[in-house]
Amino acid sequence: MDQLNKMQEIMELQHLQEQMEALSKQLEELQEKQGTISITVNAIKEIQNIKKGTEILAPLADGIFVRTQLNDNSTAIVNIGKGITVEKPLPEVLKMVQGHESKITKSSLEIETKMQDISNNLLEKIAKLEMSEVSEENKE
């Protein structure tokens, strides 16, 4: 393998490594979203079992809560975009959230498959480079 081909292979390796890093970051973000959705699913399921009139903590911001009384455990207010909210039954909200969870799981699996393909490609290219180095050393 001549020097120009080696340089091209090394550049391809770097490009593949960059792709792996980008995909890894996307996967990490999806996993964080999946964790949040899992918490939401559990909260929806739990709130349906809480008696009306029970005092609960309602979040105002991350880590900030107020004490309030649960008056309705059958519906939730859902933001549907552009600042518009609608009231929906909790089973419908649960189904919607679980749909998001399924999409995230599918996307995660797709990214993991891409990462595996890139990893295999990286290993092949590294092996090819190593073999060319060994054959060049044997020529000397």
Fold topology:
Elements lengths: L2 H45 L7 E7 L2 E6 L5 E7 L2 E6 H50 L1
Antiparallel strand pairs: 1-2, 3-4
Short description:
The chain is α+β, with helices and mostly antiparallel strands and 140 residues long. The protein is built from 2 helices and 4 strands, in the order H-E-E-E-E-H. It has helices at residues 3-47, 90-139, and strands at 55-61, 64-69, 75-81, 84-89.
Account of the protein in words:
The protein has 140 residues and is an alpha+beta fold. Helices cover 68% and strands 19% of the residues. The strands form 2 sheets. Strands 1-2 form a two-stranded antiparallel ribbon. A two-stranded antiparallel ribbon has the order 3-4. A hairpin with a 2-residue loop joins β1 and β2. α1 packs antiparallel against α2. The radius of gyration is 26 Å and the shape is rod-shaped. It starts with a helix and ends with a helix. The model has no long low-confidence stretch (mean pLDDT 92).
Question: What key attributes describe this structure?
Answer:
single chain, 140 residues, alpha+beta, two-stranded antiparallel ribbon, two-stranded antiparallel sheet, 19% strand, rod-shaped
Strand residue content: 15-25%
| Spatial strand sequence of the major β-sheet | 1-2
Distance, first to last CA: 14 Å
Rg computed from alpha carbons, rounded to a whole number of angstroms: 26 Å
Runs in which pLDDT lies below 50 for 5 or more consecutive residues are: none
- Tell me the helix content: 55-70%
Structural class: alpha+beta
- Determine the number of helices (DSSP H or I, runs of at least 4 residues): 2
The overall pLDDT, averaged over residues, is 92
The dominant shape is rod-shaped
The largest β sheet comes out as:
2 strands, antiparallel
The total count of strands amounts to: 4
Report the order of strands and helices: HEEEEH
